[in-house]
Amino acid sequence: MPMPTSTDTFIDNLVSELEPVRPLSQAGGLSRAAMAILAATVIAAFGIGLRPDLLAGKLDPVFLLSSGLFLLLTCAASFSVIQMSRPQVGNHQTGWLWATAMAALLPASALLTALVSLAKGNTMVVGLSGWNCMAMGAALGLILAVMLTAWLRRGAPTSPQRAGLLIGIASGSAGIFAFSLHCTHNDIGHIGLWHGLAVAVNAGLGRLVIPSAIKW
Amino acid sequence: MIADEATLARLMAMAQSGDRQAYAALLEACQRWLRRYYARRIGPCQLDDLVQDTMLSLHHKRASYDPQRPFLPWLAAIARYRWVDHLRKVYKADETELDESFAGASDEPAISARISLERLLSLLPSAQVAAIEMVKIEGLSVSEAAKASGQSESLIKVNIHRGLKRLTAIIEKA
Predict the structure, then answer these.
(1) Is the dihedral of CA B104, B105, B111, B114 positive or negative?
(2) Residue A198: per-residue pLDDT
(3) Which of A6, A172, A183, B124 could connect to B128 by a Cys-Cys bridge, CB 3.0–4.6 Å?
(4) B11 vs B46: CA distance, rounded Å
(5) Which chain B residues are Cβ-neighbours of A88 within 8 angstroms?
(6) Phi and psi dihedrals of A37, rounded to 5?
(7) Which residues in chain A are contacts of B62 at CB distance < 8 A?
(8) What number is the ipTM of this complex?
(9) A29: nearest CA partner in chain B
């Protein structure tokens, strides 16, 4: 729309364009995010297949802990993104930071375990087959990334760079949470490295790619 | 007379429902509020453009306002975002004298102080504030700002870059 010089004319133009809008709601954003996470989970569980121990009703504690942390990180980051769609001076989003710190315990534990093992003279074996987990986790997370990006395009995020980073974190952790239902590894080295990398890769891509899509 | 917070919030909620009369009243009030909000933080020759730019954003992003929450902190977030974006654009103001007439007292000083641009700038180091004020608001050249502040030209540029980056990150921080 051309910018008129007269403020009155400008206001008249805006008023003439007015159409009813439905305010973005927290519940609306969260329900869409939940559907995206569910979609990724269903694809992983039924499209790729559940891990055998889950089908047998056995639950490994490391699997439970790591999956829970990634799901928690997904929820915290998604919540922050949805909050960012409705700007307000005085908003403080710090929950995702704590959740990220908690999830970072996984790669930190993997690194510490590897260092202790090396210090004892053992050779460190890093299974390169884990790249599949990383790629699949990152790919499954795209469902949530697309949904959150579309949501933010309707909103008014005042910090597009941070929003892009958060969408990346949310999508990566959602994707790897879903894929962990298929992945049979229970060792902290594999989970900390490859599953953590899925989050890191999506976070980096989100930070680089998404800001231009949501800038207003 | 600037409309109070409750009136603005009610008008915005009505505008979201498609009430054009309420929307016209809201935009008129917002236009006056924004002129005062940007007072002394933008060159007078840039003020009309920035106010209209912000109102255009208000129009396009009106769905992002939650009728359950206060209106002015939402408008201030939109205004701060547009202001920082405006400062990013390279321009050399024709006029450098700032119009003090807009800096009148607010009807709601507590809210205004909390969401003001001054409060946002107070979160930056003083050297970054000085560099942004001189070059981006008053329209001095980098070399003129360097002479006036005692900072080197490269430091002025670095302080502007870092200051604007920091401002973008803290727009919603009170």
Answers:
(1) positive
(2) 96
(3) B124
(4) 28
(5) 69-70, 73-74, 77, 172
(6) -65, -40
(7) 21
(8) 0.84
(9) B64
Would you place residue B93 in the very low, low, confident or very high pLDDT band (cuts 50, 70, 90)?
very low
Residue given tokens 């003083």 in the structure block: B126
Other C-beta atoms closer than 10 Å to the C-beta of B86 total 19
DSSP string, A139-172: HHTHHHHHHHHHHHHHS--S-HHHHHHHHHHHHH
Instruction: Say which residues have a Cβ less than 8 Å from residue A115's Cβ, sequence separation at least 6.
Output: none
Task: Measure CB to CB from residue B74 to each of A87, A161, A216 and give the nearest one.
Answer: A87
Residues B90/B140, Cβ–Cβ less than 8 Å = no
Q: Identify the residue among B52, B64, B114 best suited for mutation to test binding to A, counting A beta carbons within 10 A and taking the highest.
A: B64
Half-sphere exposure in the Cβ direction for B61 (13 Å, CA): 30
Question: pLDDT category, A104, cuts 50, 70, 90?
Answer: very high
Length of chain B: 174
Q: State the pLDDT at residue B102.
A: 40
- Name the phi and psi angles at B149, rounded to 5: -100, -15
Task: Name which of A14, A156, A162 is nearest B27 (Cβ-Cβ).
Answer: A14
Of B23, B60, B77, the CB nearest to A89: B77
Residues of B in contact with A89 (CB under 8 A): 73, 76-77, 80, 114-115, 171-174
Tokens representing residue A110 in the block: 């993997």
Q: Identify which of B121, B125, B157, B164 has the alpha carbon closest to the alpha carbon of residue B141.
A: B157
Q: Which residue in A150, A159, A164, A173 sits closest to A205, CA to CA?
A: A164
From the CA of A140, how many Å to the nearest CA of chain B? 28
Please name which of B149, B2, B20 lies closest in space to residue A20, comparing C-alpha atoms. B20
Alpha-carbon distance of B135 to B132, in angstroms, equals 5
Residue that is written with structure tokens 């009807």 in the block? B107
Tokens of A99: 């959740």
Q: What are the φ and ψ backbone dihedral angles of A2, each rounded to 5 degrees? A: -65, 145
Given an 8 Å threshold on Cβ–Cβ distance, is B73 in contact with A161?
no
Distance between CA atoms of residues A30 and B92, nearest Å: 45
Q: Which residues of B touch A90 (CB under 8 A)?
A: 73, 114-115, 172-174
A90/B16 touch (CB, cutoff 8 Å), yes or no: no
Counted across chains A and B, CB pairs separated by less than 8 A come out at 120
